[in-house]
Amino acid sequence: MNAPLPDVPEVRVVGLPLLTSGFDLVERLGLPMHLKVHGPLEPMAGEALAGLAEQIELRGRGGAGFPFARKLRSVAEAAIRRGVRPVVVVNGSEDEPACRKDTVLLNRAPHLVLDGALLAAEALGARTLVIGVTRDSTEASMRTALAERGLGNRRGAALRARVQRNPVRMVTGESSALVRSADGGPPLPPGRKARTSDSGVGGAPTLLSNAETFAQLAVAARIGADRYCRTGLRDEPGTVLLTLSGAVARPMVVEVPTGVPLLYVLQLAGAPALPQGVLTGGYHGKWLDSVAAHEAVVSRAALDACGGALGAGAILPIGESTCPLGESLRVARWLAGESAGQCGPCHLGLPAAARGLADVLDGGGPTALEALREVTRAVKRRGACKHPDGTAAFLESTIAAFTDDLAAHVLGGGCGRPVLGVLPLQAETPRGEAPSGRRLAVDWTLCQGHGLCADIVPELLQLGPDGFPSVAEAAVPRYSEARAARAVRCCPALALRIEEDPKAASKQRPALPAALPPGRGRRALGSGRQ
């Protein structure tokens, strides 16, 4: 089985480093070392900053690839039109098991990310900066970085900056989920389409982009567009950060100029000489077969042209010894489990799609394959967020990339290869996802179907067709404890209560010895004295 990636894996660079400058000197660039390596940074006016982003063709590096200059101008126009101060949000919620590039930046070069965010905040006249993270290491690093700069969430400060910690979940990194959590709500998509550039944190126009995007902006502002564009391709200049895992000898994050052959990057990480396939863009990405992988180069346009995707920058090759459909089934099941549980296409459609792929592998024949295609089509463009769309794209790509294996499973007895589990998944429940040992219970004798509980804790309670909660009790993970308590307080009928979960308590409680050691009875009873 492929071991889970550490928060900060090995970091390599092809050519001259831009984002990773100084990584060969220290493990983490604190503010003094950051200034020694990168030098000071002068503020820029809004239009000048937008012009710089246009010159270097800067697009969001979180997966969607939206032009940064267009987003910056949209936020500025909305703020001027409404006469309000905008907000800047750094999305460091990197929750895919196969992605670590943003986590590496936040841990090792936090001030480079802050430089880009503060540049944008100064240009827009923003007075609020929010940094969304989901890991202990990134939370600690960014809190330290803010303290090094004397920034905090103090009332009356020229810029109020804070770190927003959310649980490690695939949907947490969705922009609307991050905005919702920054406003004190659950870290889940709200279920309605809204542009953050019009209405984001606190209802204000919000510039939200991921950590690498802000770091790229800071590098370009220091060295200028001309020098920045000397690296990489003419139409996609600069470098990109990639996370390499899967069937590789050395999982790593690597900074490469655009235009570098994908095969070279794979060899750098010790991938198989003839990979059976390469998953590009992460678990919402697309598969390349071995021929396309040998011809591809690292760039958004080039990968799109050959059927791949740059996406979140994750590259995962698999070798000939594993079943690619079985590997994809493991990922599909994990993606289905990452559903926010708020809409039918996600809550019902994704598990159905995973079961459909399992039916294909179990010899369900052409009928099972057609059923899989039908349910995959059904979830697209119907979800409360992009999670169903990304999962559907992954499944469609799996079917298209491994036609020989698909034929072996559909028409024969399977491909005959085991599933080695080379694609990394979450090994254990993260701290925030761990059960709290409590459960939220509904008293049916009091419940009147107001539905307020489903609005406050939709991850725990949903309403059934009759308008009443669909379950009588739900285990409360740690990240939902505060909202579960709020639901209890707000229930108009006083029909909710939080109680100890006997099942969780029995798992956590150590077994009592058959007899107490002599002389230790009072201490065991809690006196604290021998």
Please, what is the average pLDDT?
88
What name does CATH use for the topology of the largest domain?
Rossmann fold
Widest sheet: strand ordering: 1-7-6-10-8-9
CATH architecture descriptor name of the largest domain? 3-Layer(aba) Sandwich
Question: What percent of the residues sit in helical stretches (DSSP H or I)?
Answer: 25-40%
CATH superfamily of the largest domain: NADH-ubiquinone oxidoreductase 51kDa subunit
| Estimated share of beta-strand residues | 5-15%
Cofactor: FMN; [4Fe-4S] cluster
InterPro entries: ComplexI_51kDa_subunit, Nuo51_FMN-bd, Nuo51_FMN-bd_sf, Nuop51_4Fe4S-bd, Nuop51_4Fe4S-bd_sf
Biased composition (Low complexity): 509-519
Region (Disordered): 175-201, 502-530
Any overview of this molecule?
- This protein has 530 residues and is of the alpha/beta class.
- The chain folds into four domains: 17-227, Rossmann fold, CATH 3.40.50.11540; 239-318, Ubiquitin-like (UB roll); 324-411, de novo design (two linked rop proteins) (Up-down Bundle), CATH 1.20.1440; 434-508, 2-Layer Sandwich (Alpha-Beta Plaits), CATH 3.30.70.20.
- It is 40% helix and 13% strand.
- The strands form three sheets. Strands 1-7-6-10-8-9 form a six-stranded mixed beta sheet. Strands 4-3-2-5 form a four-stranded parallel beta sheet, sandwiched between helices.
- Strand 8 and strand 9 form a beta hairpin.
- The longest helix is centred in the middle third of the chain and has 18 residues, at 344-361.
- The chain starts with 9 loop residues before the first strand and ends in a 6-residue tail after the last helix.
